[in-house]
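Worked example

This section walks through a single chain of length 205. The input is the sequence exactly as stored; nothing has been trimmed or padded.
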Amino acid sequence: MTTQTWLAALRARSYLLGPWLAVIALLAVLPFLAGLLPIVRFVRERIDIALYPEEVRVEGLYVYQNPWPFPVIQGFSIPLPVDATHPMPIELVAARLAPDAAPIPIRNILGQDGFDLRFRAHEEVKVLVRYRQLAPTREARYLLLTTRPWRRPLEHAVYTLTPHGVALAGSNYDLRQGAPNVLAFERRDFMPPDDWRFSWEVDPR
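Given that input, the structure is written out below as C-alpha coordinates.
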Protein backbone atom coordinates (compact mmCIF):
# COMPACT_ATOMS: atom_id res chain seq x y z
CA MET A 1 0.00 0.00 0.00
CA THR A 2 1.44 3.35 -1.02
CA THR A 3 1.58 6.32 1.35
CA GLN A 4 -1.07 8.09 -0.70
CA THR A 5 -3.38 5.08 -0.53
CA TRP A 6 -2.85 4.77 3.22
CA LEU A 7 -3.62 8.47 3.79
CA ALA A 8 -6.72 8.20 1.63
CA ALA A 9 -7.94 5.21 3.64
CA LEU A 10 -7.27 7.06 6.89
CA ARG A 11 -9.22 10.09 5.70
CA ALA A 12 -12.08 7.85 4.65
CA ARG A 13 -12.29 6.44 8.18
CA SER A 14 -11.69 9.72 10.01
CA TYR A 15 -15.44 10.19 10.54
CA LEU A 16 -15.22 7.29 13.00
CA LEU A 17 -12.37 8.86 14.95
CA GLY A 18 -14.28 11.92 16.23
CA PRO A 19 -16.97 10.04 18.20
CA TRP A 20 -14.38 7.69 19.71
CA LEU A 21 -12.20 10.61 20.82
CA ALA A 22 -15.26 12.26 22.38
CA VAL A 23 -16.10 9.06 24.30
CA ILE A 24 -12.50 8.70 25.52
CA ALA A 25 -12.43 12.34 26.64
CA LEU A 26 -15.74 11.92 28.50
CA LEU A 27 -14.54 8.77 30.26
CA ALA A 28 -11.34 10.59 31.26
CA VAL A 29 -13.13 13.50 32.96
CA LEU A 30 -16.21 11.65 34.26
CA PRO A 31 -14.60 10.52 37.57
CA PHE A 32 -13.73 14.15 38.36
CA LEU A 33 -17.12 15.57 37.34
CA ALA A 34 -18.90 12.85 39.32
CA GLY A 35 -16.86 13.71 42.40
CA LEU A 36 -15.22 10.27 42.51
CA LEU A 37 -11.69 11.67 42.15
CA PRO A 38 -10.53 15.03 43.51
CA ILE A 39 -8.87 17.74 41.46
CA VAL A 40 -9.19 20.36 44.19
CA ARG A 41 -8.42 20.03 47.91
CA PHE A 42 -10.92 19.74 50.74
CA VAL A 43 -9.25 21.72 53.53
CA ARG A 44 -11.77 22.72 56.23
CA GLU A 45 -15.30 22.12 57.39
CA ARG A 46 -17.73 23.25 60.06
CA ILE A 47 -20.79 21.10 60.74
CA ASP A 48 -23.64 22.45 62.89
CA ILE A 49 -26.42 20.00 63.77
CA ALA A 50 -29.63 20.97 65.54
CA LEU A 51 -31.40 18.15 67.40
CA TYR A 52 -35.18 18.01 67.66
CA PRO A 53 -37.40 15.24 69.09
CA GLU A 54 -38.06 13.65 65.69
CA GLU A 55 -35.47 15.12 63.33
CA VAL A 56 -32.03 16.65 62.80
CA ARG A 57 -31.23 19.78 60.86
CA VAL A 58 -27.74 19.88 59.40
CA GLU A 59 -25.77 22.86 58.13
CA GLY A 60 -22.32 22.19 56.70
CA LEU A 61 -19.75 24.76 55.65
CA TYR A 62 -17.11 23.21 53.38
CA VAL A 63 -13.94 24.92 52.18
CA TYR A 64 -12.18 23.80 48.99
CA GLN A 65 -9.00 25.07 47.33
CA ASN A 66 -7.82 24.81 43.76
CA PRO A 67 -4.04 24.24 44.04
CA TRP A 68 -3.47 24.60 40.30
CA PRO A 69 -2.44 27.72 38.33
CA PHE A 70 -5.33 27.21 35.90
CA PRO A 71 -9.15 26.97 36.16
CA VAL A 72 -10.77 23.60 36.87
CA ILE A 73 -14.24 22.09 37.24
CA GLN A 74 -14.81 19.70 40.14
CA GLY A 75 -17.81 17.50 40.72
CA PHE A 76 -18.90 16.91 44.31
CA SER A 77 -21.11 14.19 45.73
CA ILE A 78 -23.25 14.83 48.82
CA PRO A 79 -23.07 11.66 50.91
CA LEU A 80 -26.22 11.31 52.98
CA PRO A 81 -26.73 8.83 55.85
CA VAL A 82 -29.76 6.93 54.60
CA ASP A 83 -30.85 3.55 55.96
CA ALA A 84 -33.94 1.65 57.10
CA THR A 85 -34.68 4.06 59.98
CA HIS A 86 -33.33 7.25 58.39
CA PRO A 87 -35.19 8.32 55.24
CA MET A 88 -33.71 10.46 52.51
CA PRO A 89 -33.17 14.01 53.82
CA ILE A 90 -35.50 16.74 52.67
CA GLU A 91 -34.98 20.42 51.86
CA LEU A 92 -31.47 19.72 50.55
CA VAL A 93 -29.88 22.96 49.30
CA ALA A 94 -26.35 24.08 48.47
CA ALA A 95 -24.91 27.53 47.76
CA ARG A 96 -21.54 29.22 47.46
CA LEU A 97 -20.84 31.40 50.46
CA ALA A 98 -20.49 34.66 48.57
CA PRO A 99 -22.50 37.89 48.29
CA ASP A 100 -25.61 37.43 46.14
CA ALA A 101 -24.71 33.80 45.41
CA ALA A 102 -27.55 31.81 43.87
CA PRO A 103 -28.29 28.25 45.01
CA ILE A 104 -26.11 25.63 43.34
CA PRO A 105 -28.12 23.26 41.13
CA ILE A 106 -28.10 19.78 42.67
CA ARG A 107 -28.07 16.84 40.27
CA ASN A 108 -28.72 13.17 40.89
CA ILE A 109 -26.59 10.58 39.11
CA LEU A 110 -27.27 6.92 39.80
CA GLY A 111 -29.02 7.82 43.04
CA GLN A 112 -26.21 10.08 44.32
CA ASP A 113 -26.88 13.78 44.90
CA GLY A 114 -24.13 16.18 43.93
CA PHE A 115 -23.14 19.39 42.18
CA ASP A 116 -20.36 20.93 40.08
CA LEU A 117 -18.19 23.92 40.89
CA ARG A 118 -15.90 26.01 38.72
CA PHE A 119 -12.68 27.25 40.31
CA ARG A 120 -10.41 30.01 39.13
CA ALA A 121 -6.65 29.45 39.41
CA HIS A 122 -5.69 29.07 43.10
CA GLU A 123 -9.23 30.00 44.17
CA GLU A 124 -10.68 29.07 47.57
CA VAL A 125 -14.43 28.38 47.54
CA LYS A 126 -16.78 28.03 50.51
CA VAL A 127 -19.97 26.01 50.07
CA LEU A 128 -22.92 25.88 52.46
CA VAL A 129 -25.10 22.74 52.43
CA ARG A 130 -28.31 22.37 54.46
CA TYR A 131 -30.78 19.54 54.91
CA ARG A 132 -33.36 18.07 57.32
CA GLN A 133 -33.67 14.40 58.14
CA LEU A 134 -36.35 12.60 60.09
CA ALA A 135 -34.96 10.49 62.95
CA PRO A 136 -37.85 8.73 64.72
CA THR A 137 -35.45 6.47 66.67
CA ARG A 138 -33.73 9.56 68.13
CA GLU A 139 -30.30 8.59 66.90
CA ALA A 140 -28.42 9.70 63.81
CA ARG A 141 -25.01 9.96 62.25
CA TYR A 142 -22.97 12.35 60.21
CA LEU A 143 -20.71 10.78 57.59
CA LEU A 144 -17.06 11.58 58.27
CA LEU A 145 -15.33 8.63 56.59
CA THR A 146 -16.17 10.22 53.24
CA THR A 147 -13.20 12.51 53.93
CA ARG A 148 -10.79 9.65 53.20
CA PRO A 149 -11.11 9.66 49.38
CA TRP A 150 -9.72 13.20 49.42
CA ARG A 151 -6.42 11.60 50.54
CA ARG A 152 -5.50 14.49 52.85
CA PRO A 153 -6.51 15.24 56.44
CA LEU A 154 -8.65 18.29 57.08
CA GLU A 155 -6.57 21.22 58.24
CA HIS A 156 -9.31 22.27 60.67
CA ALA A 157 -12.75 20.89 61.49
CA VAL A 158 -15.45 21.94 63.97
CA TYR A 159 -18.59 19.95 64.80
CA THR A 160 -21.45 21.15 67.00
CA LEU A 161 -24.73 19.82 68.37
CA THR A 162 -27.48 22.12 69.61
CA PRO A 163 -30.39 20.37 71.40
CA HIS A 164 -33.90 21.81 71.06
CA GLY A 165 -36.27 20.27 73.58
CA VAL A 166 -34.06 17.18 73.86
CA ALA A 167 -31.05 16.01 75.89
CA LEU A 168 -28.00 14.32 74.40
CA ALA A 169 -27.82 10.63 75.34
CA GLY A 170 -24.57 9.62 73.66
CA SER A 171 -21.84 10.48 71.15
CA ASN A 172 -18.91 8.40 69.91
CA TYR A 173 -16.78 11.58 69.80
CA ASP A 174 -16.20 13.34 73.11
CA LEU A 175 -18.02 16.67 73.24
CA ARG A 176 -17.29 19.76 75.30
CA GLN A 177 -19.62 22.53 76.32
CA GLY A 178 -19.23 25.45 73.96
CA ALA A 179 -21.62 28.38 73.76
CA PRO A 180 -24.74 28.05 75.93
CA ASN A 181 -26.67 24.93 74.95
CA VAL A 182 -24.01 23.95 72.35
CA LEU A 183 -21.87 20.82 72.52
CA ALA A 184 -18.85 20.55 70.24
CA PHE A 185 -15.60 18.92 69.28
CA GLU A 186 -12.79 20.36 67.20
CA ARG A 187 -9.85 18.80 65.37
CA ARG A 188 -6.80 19.88 63.42
CA ASP A 189 -4.99 17.73 60.88
CA PHE A 190 -8.06 15.47 61.06
CA MET A 191 -8.49 12.21 59.17
CA PRO A 192 -11.65 10.81 60.80
CA PRO A 193 -11.39 7.27 62.19
CA ASP A 194 -15.18 6.82 62.21
CA ASP A 195 -18.45 8.47 61.31
CA TRP A 196 -20.02 10.65 64.01
CA ARG A 197 -22.88 8.84 65.74
CA PHE A 198 -25.06 10.44 68.38
CA SER A 199 -28.38 9.85 70.14
CA TRP A 200 -30.77 11.89 72.22
CA GLU A 201 -33.92 11.71 74.32
CA VAL A 202 -36.80 14.04 74.92
CA ASP A 203 -35.92 16.49 77.67
CA PRO A 204 -38.43 15.96 80.51
CA ARG A 205 -38.09 19.55 81.68
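What to look for: Residues 1-33 form one domain.
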